[in-house]
């Protein structure tokens, strides 16, 4: 596959890994957070941690949409699905996320009309085909997915489809990065910046983070060579005492996608505050539909219960999400909580740190016996 | 299809009465099913003469949607799936029974096409459909057509396949590229707005298995056709049963460009994708090259490869290694990210 294979070339990967080992000063520790769940997944899938020196630690960040969704919002969504008029639609990732009353998949098995869609436009089509049903789209995701939800709302407006609404859980990445930097116990040296989000927002929004917190940010692609090159760039900055924003993912990220930014701004506005799993309430971190689009806002049409849940029992999702614990250090990891029977969302999504760790790693292979 | 000339069934769609056991049922069986599947008197039980001490007996059900997809259809799958379950047990497929569950409202044209697909696949695989059963359920209670087939085969006396026979040092042989079927069906549903020039790999693997047995029977330990859950699931079952490690060479695993591309876009692992015309064989290292050559020489076996080896440790784990010296665990598929595909 051209354009992928060259970023998985064993010789180039080995060369980049050797450069990382050379740059990592043995007397210091490097704690780097990969913000994006796609990066977490790639790191485990390609076994990159095997190639890194022991004093370079990768901390898995909050950039996994279903992972940071608090359980209360899952339950709010499921309450909507209990309305007999409602067809709840969601991405496949959402279907197995446990809420207090079970996961969407479990509720579906009991008869609720919950369907998996591949894009919000599919949900809109479903509404068009079933005018007697109230189709609600359970919208999740960062700036990568928000534009497609916004476009779908604009299309619903244009087509005059009234039985379609959006339950918005869209969030923004920058406030989450700030919240993490404001928690002193996490102690990060720098960030591998999210590649896909940055194709939409560009790299400029990270400038303030680099400046105010003195932490370098390198926006990275998703292939093994991308991630290793980004680590090389971060180590160079750290060794030289620089804290700048650099773009490794140059083939995709420039100034961002102005058209996508415009539709987001047209349809959505900031919520004063929003709860994140593991990070608590963060001001100005999430989006709701603007009053002009209230007709397509599920929270306006149906009202939302506003369920507040505590995390299940002994699960330590919050600590893992903030990088304080590695997935296997959670006392439930691989025992009470597995991809088959997830207790927390991090074990559900393929981008969740726990699922990625469980599926691909579980300790150096040779040591597991 | 010469048999189709004797079709006397004139109805255009399936009604509940066709499953009620009365005259309409009789017309359906005698007028359509029996003429196509080639058995003039489908009875409640089929009689079959066998000269063997060891039989393989298996059953499988097929609920694929859409019913037809590039490279195959539910009727063809229903025959090949059961034939392959027999083949990987080291048994020459002999005969099948088939049960049809029809949804009222199904176009007879569709049913006829699937019966013909079954007959053609059975002919290619060298098995007879000896009998079966037909039921009709109300409209909306099924998805057009479900097929269940049971098959019987004669175990080749030269092989003794068992997970217990697998030893460290054995080699893992894969008959060809993986993921074609699962990705083809996924794309055929038309929900993803993705298109690729790809077709299902559905076929009987018996000719390849037969060549393998002829050439390397003493070294043949275990076989499996990696259908739902893919190669990852089949090998994990073996790893768990044997408490041995299975190491795959990531770069040796054959995957077509279109399948790799679709998997990249959809975030799927080709090792988890279903196949309907491939098998995995564990072969002792001394017979590995002979076995590979025998499969490669058979028509349709050119793309067979040795993809890995059995190791003692870490017990119970399937993992891949790659060209830059790192490894990853390959677990069974959890949940069902894909719609029904077989």
What does this structure look like?
The complex is a heterodimer of chains A (369) and B (342). Chain A is of the alpha/beta class. Chain A contains 15 helices and 13 strands. Chain A has helices spanning 10-23, 37-45, 65-68, 71-81, 104-109, 120-129, 146-159, 173-181, 195-201, 207-213, 224-239, 258-267, 298-302, 317-321, 353-360; strands spanning 30-36, 56-63, 86-90, 114-116, 134-141, 164-170, 190-193, 217-219, 245-247, 268-270, 273-276, 280-283, 287-289. The longest helix of chain A is centred in the middle third of the chain and has 16 residues, at 224-239. The radius of gyration of chain A is 21 Å and the shape is globular. Chain B folds into 2 domains: 10-155, 60s Ribosomal Protein L30, Chain: A; 163-329, Alpha-Beta Complex (Phosphoribosyl-aminoimidazole Synthetase, Chain A, domain 2), CATH 3.90.650. Chain B has a 7-stranded mixed β-sheet. In chain B, helix 1 (23-37) packs parallel to helix 3 (108-125), helix 2 (74-87) packs parallel to helix 3 and helix 5 (206-216) crosses helix 8. The chains are: A alpha/beta (369), B alpha+beta (342). The interface between A and B is medium-sized, with 34 and 24 residues.
């Amino acid at each position: 596959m051209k354009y992928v294979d060259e970023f998985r070339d064993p010789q180039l990967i080995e060369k980049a890994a050797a450069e990382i080992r050379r740059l990592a000063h043995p007397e210091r520790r490097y704690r780097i957070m990969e913000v994006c769940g796609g990066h977490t997944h790639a790191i485990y899938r390609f076994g990159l941690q095997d190639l890194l020196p022991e004093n370079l630690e990768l901390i898995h960040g909050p950039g996994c949409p279903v992972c940071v969704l608090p359980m209360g919002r899952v339950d709010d969504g499921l309450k909507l699905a209990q309305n007999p008029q409602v067809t709840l639609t969601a991405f496949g990732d959402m279907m197995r996320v446990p809420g207090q009353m079970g996961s969407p998949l479990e509720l579906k098995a009991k008869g609720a009309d919950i369907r998996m869609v591949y894009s919000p436009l599919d949900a809109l089509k479903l509404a068009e085909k079933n005018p007697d049903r109230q189709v609600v789209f359970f919208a999740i995701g960062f700036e990568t997915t928000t534009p497609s939800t916004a476009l779908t709302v604009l299309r619903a407006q244009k087509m005059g489809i009234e039985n379609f609404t959006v339950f918005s859980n869209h969030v923004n990445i920058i406030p989450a990065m700030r919240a993490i930097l404001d928690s002193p116990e996490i102690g990060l040296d720098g960030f591998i910046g999210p590649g896909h989000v940055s194709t939409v927002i560009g790299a400029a929004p990270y400038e303030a983070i680099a400046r105010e917190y003195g932490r370098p940010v390198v926006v990275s692609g998703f292939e093994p060579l991308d991630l290793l090159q980004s680590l090389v760039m971060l180590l160079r900055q750290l060794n030289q005492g620089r804290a700048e924003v650099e773009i490794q993912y140059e083939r995709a990220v420039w100034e961002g996608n102005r058209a996508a930014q415009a539709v987001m701004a047209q349809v959505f506005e900031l919520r004063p505050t929003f709860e994140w799993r593991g990070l608590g309430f963060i001001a100005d971190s999430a989006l709701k539909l603007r009053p002009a689009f209230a007709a397509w806002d599920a929270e306006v049409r149906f009202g939302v219960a506003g369920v507040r849940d505590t995390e299940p029992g002994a699960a330590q999702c919050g600590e893992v999400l903030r990088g304080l614990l590695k997935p296997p250090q959670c006392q439930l990891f691989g025992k009470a909580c597995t991809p088959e029977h997830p207790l927390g969302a991090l074990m559900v999504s393929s981008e969740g740190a726990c699922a990625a760790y469980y599926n691909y790693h579980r300790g150096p292979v040779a040591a597991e016996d | 299809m010469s048999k189709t000339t004797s079709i006397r069934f004139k109805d255009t769609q399936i009604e509940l009465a066709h499953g009620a056991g009365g005259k309409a049922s009789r017309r359906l069986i005698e007028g359509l099913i029996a003429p196509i599947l080639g058995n003039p008197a489908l009875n409640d039980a089929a009689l079959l003469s066998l000269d063997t001490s060891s039989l393989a007996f298996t059953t499988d059900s097929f609920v694929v949607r859409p019913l037809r997809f590039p490279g195959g259809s539910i009727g063809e799958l229903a025959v090949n799936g059961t034939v392959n379950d027999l083949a990987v047990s080291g048994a020459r497929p002999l005969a099948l029974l088939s049960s049809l569950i029809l949804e009222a409202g199904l176009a007879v044209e569709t049913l006829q096409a699937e019966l013909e697909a079954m007959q053609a696949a059975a002919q290619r695989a060298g098995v007879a459909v000896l009998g079966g059963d037909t039921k009709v359920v109300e409209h909306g209670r099924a998805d057009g057509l479900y097929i269940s087939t049971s098959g019987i085969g004669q175990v080749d006396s030269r092989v003794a396949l068992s997970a217990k026979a697998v030893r460290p040092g054995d080699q893992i042989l894969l008959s060809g590229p993986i993921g074609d079927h699962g990705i083809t069906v996924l794309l055929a549903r038309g929900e993803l707005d993705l298109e690729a020039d790809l077709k299902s790999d559905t076929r009987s693997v018996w000719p390849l298995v037969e060549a393998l047995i002829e050439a390397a029977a003493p070294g043949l330990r275990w076989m499996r056709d990696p259908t739902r859950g893919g190669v990852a699931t089949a090998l994990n079952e073996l790893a768990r049963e044997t408490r041995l490690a299975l190491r795959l060479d990531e770069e040796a695993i054959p995957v077509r460009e279109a399948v790799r591309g679709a998997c990249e876009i959809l975030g799927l692992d080709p090792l988890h994708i279903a196949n309907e015309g491939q098998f995995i064989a564990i072969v002792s290292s001394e017979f590995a090259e002979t076995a590979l050559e025998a499969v490669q020489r058979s028509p349709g076996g050119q793309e067979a490869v040795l993809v890995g080896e059995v190791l003692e440790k870490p017990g119970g784990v399937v993992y891949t290694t790659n060209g830059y010296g790192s490894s990853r665990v390959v677990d069974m598929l959890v949940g069902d990210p894909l719609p029904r595909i077989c």
